[in-house]
Fold:
Amino acid sequence: MVYNDRPLFSLIARAEIRSIKDLKGTILGVATLTSGESFLSRRLLKDAGIDADKEMTLRVIGNTPDRLQALKAGLVDATTLTLPVDILAERLGLRRLAFHG
Structure:
């Protein structure tokens, strides 16, 4: 049996976004404004020097499959996705910028 004591999220972006710093001024898709993945995304962005609440637009999208669809459709520039959806996103040509876990 395998246990994990950390969240397993990846920050995934459109293919042309090369780094976390490139996310400044873009749209971040989140499940809700108070969700765990939203908190982790904000913290990761803050560590990279981006205040997501002031320097990005946060768009509430909902669950993981909906966030992937929003990213594919261009409604958001980046979002967090869980395993195994993050792997699928990479196979679709989207870029993994970071892994939380």
In short: The radius of gyration is 12 Å. The chain has four helices and five strands. The longest helix spans residues 36-47. Residues 2 and 70 are 32 Å apart (CA to CA).
